[in-house]
């Protein structure tokens, strides 16, 4: 398996995977044009983050997004893992683990202070995977207000 930064030629696939992930996890239908612009915006502005793509036998089989959160308490960045998607035929085959390992290595090299992600409360399989990778559930609830 190869893990690489996403390229402009990946925009459509990443957007499609994000739409599939939103449907699978939350039964939400995302606006395809907004999604395409959102994925493109990450590639246009590296300060927003970056996507990684996993390939097996030359075929893209998964992706994730990394964004940054500044922590004044720790004087450093947390790297947030978001928009994780693994193609159904590649699931349970180490794709996420490979991407996670790559992100962790990149974060250490960049001087990040930690990795974070959020997960659906019902997604026990993913939670178990995160625990097995050494992540711990934190003591915060997440709130949001859409504008």
Automatic annotation (TrEMBL):
Protein name: GNAT family N-acetyltransferase
UniProt-listed CDD domains: NAT_SF
Domain N-acetyltransferase: 1-147
UniProt superkingdom: Bacteria
Keyword Repressor among UniProt keywords: no
InterPro entries noted in UniProt: Acyl_CoA_acyltransferase, Bact_Acetyltransf, GNAT_dom
Keywords of this entry: Acyltransferase, Transferase
Protein's organism: Dyella humi
Residue ranges of the TM segments: none
Pfam families tied to this protein: Acetyltransf_1
